């Protein structure tokens, strides 16, 4: 695909190939202008695309999966008559995860670039974890909107067992790196890491994923549920504890041999 720009009567030809742009021109200023224009166009295009990957901490440890299945069974038994509550809106236990941020990677070259960027973050991550796994606990639930009788997404709370903010620090650092590289939008100063356990998007598509904690899908795409009784009965429910030892770039709409999302890149904490 070819584009032409004119800068002070100088023609600049931009040849956009798969994964790269070739810009030629007679004057440096014209080429620099074209580079800026292409970067703006790509960034604008990326913002309009559905995300393809996301940075995640896996929560699908067997103990947490068992705790989640108990929670699901008890909610359906005790709150199954509440408006909008049914089995279809529960997360797949094998895909339980914390979302850090989403990525719209436009081609294989960008997937490779994102994977390489994650590897470049390894030392910074291990400085935070002291090159050890993080003992984490999954306990309690929360929602984000103002009305507990009209909830679209219910989240599990995850904390580091020593009370530190190491998990938050890793998430913030990763978003900082990926946003600086132009691969991710930084929506807030501190990342809202969230582990979805119930999502009304799952009614129509069990593989659906919210764009993030601040996403606002069209109301007509989902039917909210009444979470008042769930929050009252299970507000401090214990799902389990385990040692978290990695962060990965997860591919949307994919499944690996464990039932979790396929990885396009991973860094371990130890």
UniProtKB/TrEMBL annotation:
InterPro entries per the UniProt record, alphabetical: AKAP7-like_phosphoesterase, ASCC1
A Pfam family found in this protein is: AKAP7_NLS
Give the UniProt keywords, A-Z: Signal
Signal peptide coordinates:
1-21
Q: What does the record list as GO biological process?
A: DNA alkylation repair; regulation of DNA-templated transcription
Q: Which domain of life is it from?
A: Eukaryota
Ranges of residues in domain A-kinase anchor protein 7-like phosphoesterase: 51-269
Q: Give the UniProt entry's GO cellular component terms.
A: nucleus
Record-given protein name: A-kinase anchor protein 7-like phosphoesterase domain-containing protein
């Amino acid at each position: 695909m070819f584009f032409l720009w004119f800068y002070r009567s100088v023609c600049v030809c931009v040849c956009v190939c798969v994964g790269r742009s070739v810009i030629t021109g007679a004057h440096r200023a014209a080429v620099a202008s074209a580079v800026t224009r292409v970067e703006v166009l790509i960034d604008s295009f990326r913002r309009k695309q559905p995300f393809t990957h996301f940075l995640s901490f896996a929560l699908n440890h067997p103990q947490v999966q068992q705790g989640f299945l108990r929670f699901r069974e008890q909610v359906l038994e005790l709150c199954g008559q509440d408006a909008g509550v049914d089995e279809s809106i529960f997360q797949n236990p094998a895909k339980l995860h914390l979302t850090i941020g989403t990525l719209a990677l436009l081609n294989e070259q960008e997937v490779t670039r994102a994977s390489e960027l994650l590897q470049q973050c390894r030392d910074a991550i291990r400085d935070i974890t002291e090159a050890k796994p993080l003992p984490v606990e999954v306990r309690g639930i929360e929602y984000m909107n103002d009305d507990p009788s009209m909830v679209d997404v219910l989240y599990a709370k995850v904390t580091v067992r020593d009370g530190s903010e190491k998990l938050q620090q890793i998430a913030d650092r990763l978003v900082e790196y990926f946003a600086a590289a132009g691969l991710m939008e930084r929506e807030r100063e501190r990342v809202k890491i969230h582990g979805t356990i119930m999502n009304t998007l799952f009614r129509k598509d069990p593989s659906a994923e919210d764009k993030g904690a601040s996403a606002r899908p069209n109301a007509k795409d989902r039917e909210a549920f009444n979470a008042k009784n769930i929050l009252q009965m299970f507000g401090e429910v214990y799902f389990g504890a385990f040692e978290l030892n990695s962060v990965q770039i997860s591919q949307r709409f994919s499944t690996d041999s464990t039932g979790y999302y396929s990885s396009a890149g991973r860094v371990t904490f130890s």
